[in-house]
User: Fold these one by one.
Assistant:
Number 1:
Amino acid sequence: MMAAALQHPWAKMSTVWDFAQSCIHFEHALPLVLGGWMSESVKCDGDQVAATYRRQGVATIADFLAAARANPATAPAVARAAFFEQGDGAALSFDLKVLYGGDDVLVSATEVVATVLSHFQRMGIKVALREKPYTPPPLPPTLPGQAPINDVQLPVPTWKAFEFDVDTTLAPEVALGGLKGPGLRLVGLGVTASKSGGPMTWKIAGEIYGN
């Protein structure tokens, strides 16, 4: 339990570019149209990918499922397909394989935060930044005959953590190009099609760890 409290979360998270590459590769492999249903969004979140499609014209759920089964990129997700909005929307979920960034030696949190904010400021992109509160690991269950564990004092991490979110119409290859640093991790990347025919919107989510 003590060891769990001191585990470095960034060690088992993906670097910015490794995560972005994995997500972009997955997004490009998914078809834009499945049986008359148009792609609406693709979102990578941790080790999961969610893709949504919107029914067009007289296309049916049966059409969507048949097309999804026939496509190698979507066939593995057919068994977990879900439908919403009275059958006008469809969702497919996939597992995303990501590489771990490793146990970086942290530097000043102020330095990494400045790196992230400056990177997006140069492109005129607003960043939502907030400190991430520490959540201690849950206490182990009490065994039969054992007194309840209520007064255990877990060690408090010495590092600081921040979360950031970005919305942009720039492709992630551009928006994230050159962004790197110790303790800097990407946890989410998604794209949503414009309902008015305008440019697609990318949502980027990351975390920063530093001293």
Number 2:
Amino acid sequence: MIIASALIQKDPSTYAVLADFDIDGTAYGEMTCTPKDATDYVPFFVMKTMTLDASSHTIKIRYRSELLSGDALIKNARIIAIPLAVNASADLTSVTIPTDTDTRLAVGTQLSWNDTEPSGTDLEYQLYYLDGIWRLIPDDDLSGNSAGFDTSPINISSVKTDYEQIRIKASFTSDGTDTPTLSDWTVTYRYREYNATEPTTANMTEQVICYPSGTIASKVLDTGKNGATWTSFNWDETLASGADITFEVRASDISFLMDAVSPSWTAVGGTSPVTSGLPTGQYQQWRATILLTLETPALEKVNTYYTW
């Protein structure tokens, strides 16, 4: 992240002053302003997140008077480069399986998926079961589940009737440039009817093809200071007809885990950008709910901005 700030002035006062932030010949944050008098310096501030991977870069604040023969003045100029973590990760969970609330799992058969993992990225899969809260199926009943699976398909025949409802979780890891893509995942299992006279003799086979619908949550961001103000939140998405992505956010000055129940979530809708109604706190997190049709929407990038 590159931050540029300065105070600018010009003479004569009847003309505006022009300023911008230039990185390798590309201008950002162009501003035109008219200080009210010769002592009035106007603040100039630009923040830009980008990848700087060349051996050298030219970064500068440019300024001039609107009147070419006039003078432009600057003071307290600062350009700061802040390295950001190159890896980003998030989790996506499937719908509850079986999807029919009148049935329960009898025995699993297979878990499979179709994904794309560019070099430097990763996707790992795990199975969870419902026991009041969602818990990871232990390795004793599904070997390798705690570490996660990377190669499709997986034999899940060891997942039996003790686990009446299950869910898949996919853990995404990006290298900061490329992001893995999950196209679909499939669970094949046998199920039984669920009623007051269990067990019944019903033991039928069902295959659930789950397109990646569900929720995806970010890691908890530590801004480094209590009371940090979450000023803006935006994202890039591609939506098919009927599909949607909506967001919730939360923040606290008390550290919390990524999957903690509190602090509570605040819904901010599905229209980017969001610039109001955002919580404050040193620790911040967002969560997206993905609603799809036959085509999967794509969440390509999420940006958060905060001030101290």
Number 3:
Amino acid sequence: MEFISKVDTCARKYHRTDIVFDTYQASSLKSETRSKRGQGARRRVTGTGKLPRNWRDILRHSANKAELFDYLAEKVVEHNSDNRVIVTKGPEALSNHPEYSLSEISPCSHEEADTRVFLHVKDAVKEGFKTVMISANDTDVLVIAVATFSHRPRTEFEVDPSA
């Protein structure tokens, strides 16, 4: 699975890798906005199903994305890595190293990964990490990162837009 190989590459390179997905809450302002855009086709996400031809249509349906993110989260946690990998699954956070406490980041009511990722950053800095690299393809994340890190002079950050 290509996704797991990318996670593995990051996990070998970094001591801690956090993967933060959006959540899809039924009764939220964001949910109302998504429903006005229309929904794509509903498909079950399983490890044995055929890959869809039209990803854009599949990813327009919130339930498809939620199931896909949950499936990927489970696969990440099952994957063996010496370094710690933390992944979100709905409001919860999971880790391949359960001996570490996730109480500062789980459960979480943030619906968007754009903001939730900064709870993970705060947790990593609190643990003593001095450098943080955020990989995201959303300019909102860059804006929030600049505002967040301007108050943390001893923490270096990099935003990689190639996510």
